[in-house]
Amino acid sequence: MVRIAIVPGDGIGREVIPVAWNIISSLHPEFESFEVEVGYARWQRTGISCTDEDISVMKEADAILFGAVTTPPDSCYSSVILRIRHALDLYANLRPVKGDDFDIMIVRENSEGLYSGIEWREKDRACTVRVVSVEGSRRIARCASHLAKARGCLLTIGNKANVIKSDVLFREICCEEASRAGIPFEACFIDSLALDILQHPKRYGVIVTTNIFGDILSDVAGYLVGGLGMLPSANIGDQHALFEPVHGSAPDIAGQGRANPIAAIRSGAMLLTHLGFKEDAELIEDAIRSVCQSGIRTPDLGGSASTGSFGEAIRSALGC
Ligand code: ATP
């Protein structure tokens, strides 16, 4: 029996995840699901955002479908998604960006870098430690090299080694692993890469980079496909897997039924591929294409469909 943990979280996560889950469970009524409440809304109500018990039950699932959580600028509050990524050791964040004539996979190191969680405030400054370890770099480099080999494409190593010493190490390890895998690779500085990916998206196949650079680069690449509402992601570890849209909780549009659910639906499609149902994932991608082409779109794509009605259009395109 496949068991899925559903974690809507905050803001538009609560609107897009039910739509995505409705589609997945229509295709796979045999999947069992259970909901886990975490996030800022829970913290506001109870003073707790996520417990050890929540983490334990997520670990029992075959996969987790996650919405988004708000992280307020409050020094007493620590990010729930970072805690989950660390606790489940979800070290690879895969962020596909696909258009008619390009197919890029951004592989973001997800466990260290500038999101190490080692930070403190002093009287007149605040410090965050950027951690790049040999082991952390090697496992993400291997993951990206395997993906590039399987796709038969170039591996681009995004870095800022000309300025940051920790990226010299990251670049070295990635070059070693790419050579070992026998794939074509190049190292590019992340700032010029961010521009070039917009100008020449067809040049790129798999891009591997450190945590915050991957976070920013994938939002930038969202420009190529119609914005943040379109981009899914997978957080993969050796034991667990969590699927979530790249976007956050978008408090500015939450509760209005305006959120584009495509990123969440595509995250659900990645979950299906992970569980071995690649054909269903392809059917979902085809349905998204045909519904958008028929003119049914949410406001961020220039349409007037609501989150829910877009989801229903996908279900009827799938014959559910
Ligand atoms: P958070 O603090 O949770 O990261 P945020 O608002 O800072 O939230 P995002 O949620 O990533 O960051 O959103 C940035 C902007 O992009 C939002 O203000 C919203 O207008 C738009 N946006 C994000 N996701 C969607 C979506 N699914 N549909 C429509 N617009 C979206």
The largest sheet is: 10 strands, mixed
Largest sheet strand order: 2-1-3-12-11-4-5-10-8-9
Strand content: 15-25%
Shape: globular
CATH superfamily of the largest domain: Isopropylmalate Dehydrogenase
Mean pLDDT: 96
N-C termini distance = 22 Å
Number of strands: 12
| Helix percentage | 40-55%
What is the N-to-C succession of helices and strands?
EHEHHEHEEEEHEHEHEHEEHHH
Structural class: alpha/beta
Main CATH class of the largest domain: Alpha Beta
Number of helices: 11
Write out key terms for the chains shown:
ten-stranded mixed beta sheet, binds adenosine-5'-triphosphate, 12 strands, alpha/beta, globular, 320 residues, Isopropylmalate Dehydrogenase, 11 helices, 42% helix, single chain
Architecture overview:
The protein is of the alpha/beta class. Helix content is 42%, strand content 19%. The protein contains 11 helices and 12 strands. It has helices at 13-27, 40-46, 52-60, 80-87, 134-151, 165-181, 190-199, 211-221, 262-274, 278-293, 307-317, and strands at residues 3-9, 32-35, 63-68, 92-98, 103-109, 119-121, 126-128, 155-159, 185-189, 206-209, 232-236, 241-245. The chain is globular. The protein binds adenosine-5'-triphosphate.
Topology:
Layout: E1 3-9, H1 13-27, E2 32-35, H2 40-46, H3 52-60, E3 63-68, H4 80-87, E4 92-98, E5 103-109, E6 119-121, E7 126-128, H5 134-151, E8 155-159, H6 165-181, E9 185-189, H7 190-199, E10 206-209, H8 211-221, E11 232-236, E12 241-245, H9 262-274, H10 278-293, H11 307-317
Parallel strand pairs: 1-2, 1-3, 3-12, 5-10, 8-9, 8-10
Antiparallel strand pairs: 4-5, 4-11, 6-7, 11-12
Helix pairs in contact: 1-9, 1-11, 5-6, 7-8, 9-10, 10-11
Bound molecules: adenosine-5'-triphosphate.
